[in-house]
Structures are given as C-alpha cells and as structure tokens.
Write a structure and sequence with these properties.
The N and C termini lie far apart (43 Å). Helix 2 links the parallel strand 3 and strand 4. This protein has 5 helices and 9 strands, in the order H-E-E-E-H-E-H-E-H-E-E-E-H-E. The protein has 203 residues and is an alpha+beta fold. It is globular and about 45 Å long. The chain has one domain: Glutaredoxin (3-Layer(aba) Sandwich), CATH 3.40.30.10.
Length: 203
C-alpha cells in the first residue's frame, strides 16, 4: 500500500514537472496595473489611461541597434494613434549596471534629444517586464480597453522589417489598431519580437 502510494506521488511529481510554467501574458490576457517612473520624474500607471481605447506598450531601450532602427517609427506610431485613443507607453527594462547606456540619466537625455511626446518609463526592478513576458527590445504588447480592463490583443514586432523602414510590407501594430478601430478582427495577433535580448539583473 505504501509502495503504491509512493509510486502515485512520484508520477504526479513527474507529470507536474513536465508542465511548462506560463511566463508572461498571452493574447487575451487581462493586464495588471503597474506604476513606473517616467523620464520627467513623475510616476505613470496603466490605470492613468482610463479614457483610452487601448495602449501600445513597447519595451525599448537606448542602446540596442534594433531599438535605434525603430526609434522614429515608434515616435510616428504615437503621433498617428495617440489622438485615436491608442497612445504609446515605452518601458526601458535593461539593468544599467550591465548596460550603462540605458541608465535613467541616459534615458532622459534620449527622450529630450528625440522629443518624445510619450512616457519613457524605467522598470528598475524588472518586475513589470517579467510580468509581461518581454524578452527583447523592442517588444510590443498592444492592449485594448474592455470595460475597466486592459487586455492583450497583439504581441510581437512593430512591423516585418527591422532594418529598413522603407521596405516594410506588413505593419503589424498599425494593422491591429486599424482592425480594432473598424470593428474588425486582427488577422495577425502574434509575431516574433526581433531585437536585442533584455539585460536581466544578475541573480
């Protein structure tokens, strides 16, 4: 009897070990509120956007070549869609002790130089980045407001050409927002985020 019980417990442990632990949000998930420091020194929360139709959350940084390539496109996204109820909120996830060019002071300099008209938040603890499941810079999570909740409707890349903005054929984020705004269905709700891996704190 004891041997049978031990065998059953061992099987349960093995089965549980084989189940992958969910990491981050998936399409359709409700997003928890968060609050992070903006480059202007003020705290910005997702709940501040209660009157928005959605939010374009982009995990981004100063130093990654892919982030630099997408910089103007991110600025353009906010200019095009903030007025339509879908503002950009950029979040810098990298540990500045590993990537000094992504320090808060350097973030402020970049935001001022580029004339950011959207928040550029510092995820100092990296908790928000891990909660979302962000892996790269840039990495987009398009959120749609449903009632009082924000839900993920698209995850991945901004478009299909990280190197050349003039050669883009699929504007994933724009197509998703346009579909939502027109009452349609998002045809592509997940793509691979192309960029630099996030520089996580050493354990």
């Amino acid at each position: 009897m004891i041997r049978t019980l031990l065998t059953a417990v061992a099987c349960i442990v093995l089965l549980t070990a084989g189940v992958p632990v969910k990491s981050g949000y998936d399409v359709g998930d409700k997003v928890a509120d968060f609050k992070l420091k903006n480059v202007d020194g003020k705290m910005v929360a997702l709940s501040d956007y209660k009157n928005a139709k959605g939010v374009i959350v982009i995990f981004d940084c100063n130093t990654c070549p892919y982030s630099k390539a997408y910089n103007e496109r991110i600025i353009a996204l906010n200019k095009k869609y903030a007025g339509q109820g879908f503002p950009v909120v950029a979040i810098q996830p990298n540990d500045p002790t590993i990537s000094p060019g992504d320090s808060f002071d350097e973030m402020k300099k970049l935001a001022e130089k580029k004339g950011y008209d959207f928040p550029y938040l510092f995820d100092e603890t990296q908790v928000v980045s891990k909660t979302f499941g962000a892996t790269n810079t840039p990495h987009v999570f398009l959120l749609k407001k449903e009632g009082t909740d924000f839900k993920v409707v698209y995850i991945g890349a901004i478009d299909d050409n990280a190197k050349d903005a003039s050669a883009v054929s699929k504007k994933y984020v724009e197509e998703a927002i346009d579909a939502i705004s027109n009452g349609g269905t998002i045809t592509t709700n997940k793509t691979k985020a192309i960029g630099c891996t996030i520089k996580w704190k050493n354990a």
